[in-house]
Design goal:
Elements: H1 19-33, H2 35-55, H3 59-62, H4 75-83, H5 86-117, H6 123-135, H7 142-151, H8 159-162, H9 170-180, H10 185-193, H11 198-209, H12 211-227, H13 230-236, H14 245-255, H15 260-280, H16 282-291
Helix pairs in contact: 2-15, 4-15, 5-9, 5-12, 6-9, 9-12, 10-11, 12-16, 14-15
Length: about 300
């Protein structure tokens, strides 16, 4: 007697994949791919977030170990303008950073172009000198430079910090030179064949192609001047009307060292402009830094 065959088992119906489930899987995959970047972002942004929270606390709570304000006091930002000449410090900082950046570009771009694209005797020696100057600590030449500016009666102003940019900046010359090496020389040769001189080639051909590198060098110089403390302390310490934000904040912290809510509020106000500038020019800055140094 033959055994009855078991009826075939129907295959299980596939589980429908909903749109919400797909989005959740994609979100988890994105988090897994960027987990290191997310961890680093949290690590760097946590102190900034605490700084903002501390700026809206009361003076008494700011001295405690609390991480969250019991009450929000946004009037601390208005009080900063009442107890310190912050607008004047901001204006001096903008003048210093903007003037130094413009003068640096006017002098460093031609120097970098000559070192990258022109052939002349002693070019490598000049580039080596630029690298050596870049590695030289500024404190080494502080005394002779201060005596020189004092002889001309320019101490107590921002002139000793701005005028030297007419002669270029070693780091920016190095950065721009490395970026200009990535521009094919065929474009320059074609412009010379059409009758362009070196200056016209620089202005009409090189500058439009070197915008990311120029933006990166300009932002480096702007950030350096904005955050510079040593230079204003050295040359403008005896004249408060020429103080920049960094020097003014240091003095404000010394006077109001108990009112940490006001100190942090002033710090947040000083950070906002530079953060806005960076995010507006972030794309050009990252592109310029990425492409710099492709060729040696």
């Amino acid at each position: 007697m033959t055994a009855l065959a078991a009826p075939p088992v129907a295959p299980a119906a596939p589980v429908p994949v909903t749109g919400r489930r797909v989005r959740r899987q994609r979100r988890l995959a994105w988090i897994a791919r960027h987990s290191i970047a997310i961890a680093l972002a949290i690590m760097f942004l946590t102190p900034v977030g605490y700084l903002v929270l501390l700026s809206v606390m009361t003076s008494e709570q700011a001295l405690t170990s609390d991480y969250w304000p019991n009450s929000w006091h946004f009037e601390n930002y208005a009080r900063v303008f009442e107890v310190t000449p912050l607008p004047r410090y901001l204006l001096n900082t903008v003048i210093y950073a903007a003037a130094a950046t413009v003068l640096m570009l006017l002098s460093s771009v031609p120097a970098a172009y000559a070192l990258a694209k022109l052939r002349f005797r002693g070019r490598n020696a000049m580039f080596l000198a630029v690298v050596c100057v870049m590695m030289l600590p500024p404190q080494v030449v502080t005394v002779p430079l201060y005596l020189m500016w004092a002889r001309y009666g320019l101490t107590g102003s921002l002139a000793p910090l701005i005028v030297p940019m007419l002669f270029g900046d070693a780091f920016c010359i190095f950065l721009l030179r490395q970026f200009l090496l990535t521009i094919p020389s065929e474009y320059l040769d074609a412009a010379r064949v059409d009758g362009c001189g070196e200056w016209r080639t620089l202005l009409r051909v090189v500058l439009p192609m070197a915008r990311p590198g120029i933006a990166a060098a300009a932002l480096f110089q702007f950030f350096y001047a904005w955050n510079d403390y040593y230079g204003p302390l050295l040359y403008t310490s005896e004249n408060e009307s020429s103080w920049t934000l960094s020097l003014g904040l240091a003095s404000f912290r010394g006077v109001h060292h108990v009112d940490w809510n006001l100190v942090t509020a002033a710090t947040v106000l000083a950070m906002v402009p530079i953060v806005v500038v960076f995010f507006l020019a972030q794309k050009a800055f990252v592109q310029g830094v990425t492409l710099t140094g492709v060729k040696g």
